Structures are given as C-alpha cells and as structure tokens.
Amino acid sequence: MSATNKQLATFAGGCFWCMVTPFEEIPGILKVTSGYTGGHKPNPTYEEVCSETTGHAEAIQIEFDPEVMSYSALLDIYWQQIDPTDPHGQFFDKGASYRTAIFYHSEEQRELAERSKEELGQSGRFAGPIVTEIVPASEFYEAEEYHQDFHKKNPYRYKTYRNGSGRDRFIQEHWSTNKDKARLREILTPLQYEVTQNNATERPFQNEFWDAKEDGLYVDIVSGEPLFTSREKYDSHCGWPSFTEPVVNNNVIELVDTTHGMVRTEVRSRKGDSHLGHVFNDGPGPKGLRYCINSAALRFIPVDKLKEAGYGEYASLFK
pTM value? Predict the structure, then answer.
C-alpha cells in the first residue's frame, strides 16, 4: 500500500484504553494510537487532561487503508463501543475529557458521520437522543508511552477496569443479537441452539468442522461476528475445531466456568453472547493457547465467498 492511500480516523469514546482493542486487529488497520484532542492546550499530560482544564478528550487516532477497511465500517464499530446518549462522559468516567466525539478529517468523513448518526438515532436502539459530537479534527497529541497498548502491558488491570466500568454490560444490553429466543429457535438447528444458548457440547469427531482444512473465515452462527480463520486452525486431536487465537480478540470474551466439578475458561462471542467452547493452556505457538470450539457455534465462509458475504476486508489475510 502506498502512503497516499493511508487515511486517519479519530474517535473519542471515553477511556482510550477501551477504545483501542475493538479496532487494532481488523484488516486494513495500520496503527491505533491513544492520545488527546479537541482542546486548547498544546502537548497536554494525562493529569492535565483529567483535570478538565485543557478542553481535550481522551481519543484514539486510527491509521487505515480505505481500500481494505472503509470509514463507514469504522463508524459502525465505533458506535457499538460507546453510550452515545450520555453528554456527561462514558460509564463511570464523567467529565468533558471522557465525552464522545467523531473528529472528521475530510468533508466526506463529515457527511458519512452525520449520516450514520442520523441512522442510529432513527433506529430506535436507544431511548434518548444521540449526543455524540461531530467536529473537525484538530491537533492530536499522542498520550504517554505507558498508555499505548495498555491492554497488552497490563492485561489484568485492563480487564478489571473494563469489566468494572460497565462498558461491556452496556454493549451487551444494546447490541446483543440473541435476545429473541423464539426467533433463534426458528433459524438455528436444535444442536446449534443448545450449544450457543444453553452451553451444550457437541460430540467430538462427529461435528462439521473438526477436520476441515479449507481456507476461510469462521463467524458466530448467531451474530455473524468474525471469530477465527483457517490460518489459526490446527489439529489438536481432540475432535473439535481448535484454533491458536481469535482473528479479532475483542470479539471473544472469556468467563470462569465452574460447571461439572471443574474450573475452566469459557469462550463466548461478544456481540452474539453465544457459547463457543473453552480455551486451554496446552496449545502450540508463542501464546500456548488452544481455543476448543463447537462447530455448531460457527458458520464457515470460504475465501472466494468473503466479499459476497460482506466480509471482503478479511480476504487480505489470505494473500
């Protein structure tokens, strides 16, 4: 990709630690930086921004390739990370430095942002009005080094903060796709329903994808959110599809599972809230993880069908 194709997107959505992970692993994303913008003080520090005296908001700036990932798609992801109806901050972080805002870099971005905001307001998804600002981009000041990739440097503190803030509960409440159980019973097979909704486990070696080798993307059978690709799939000899890592970590959440007299780590999809399987510490690769997933929780999309199915940006992973 040439430098001329690179574009910027700048979003404020409360704590910038939580705004990095939804974007960083998506195809077409070149870099995600935490920082401050929208205020009047040059080169502010974190403490100054938190003091509410600089006018700046915590924000992220995304460098992306528009030929792979569109700005409209970034807007869709952005709206699903925030409470766009709160004029006072985000979740338990209050103050102007935690406000939501879209800082546009071109007239095209402004038009797309205004349109997406209007569509969200008309969708009826939220009871109150959408108050997120759409304003011209101004100087973006990179945050201190310890804030960059905070979720990687301090994973326990990040997960504790994110869970305690209420952000994930809000996202689940407003964006989950599996609220209508009656509809799910109509569109899913009995096995798919029992696995995704009632935490059942399918039979090993007698499921659709345990031995599949075709290149492509595995998505949640309920929500369609991308979960794994064939690149991370390997034969663990356990009888279920096994992967070394998700294609987008933010789409997968982990919960403690104490059922059946064991302590395990359950894996669920974030948007669909589907039970997927479990993750174990006996896998290959540098992380040593094995995501043991039920085939019944997955839908497979071959590489040559990705664009047709609406996942064209993921085709670049297989080149």
Answer: 0.82
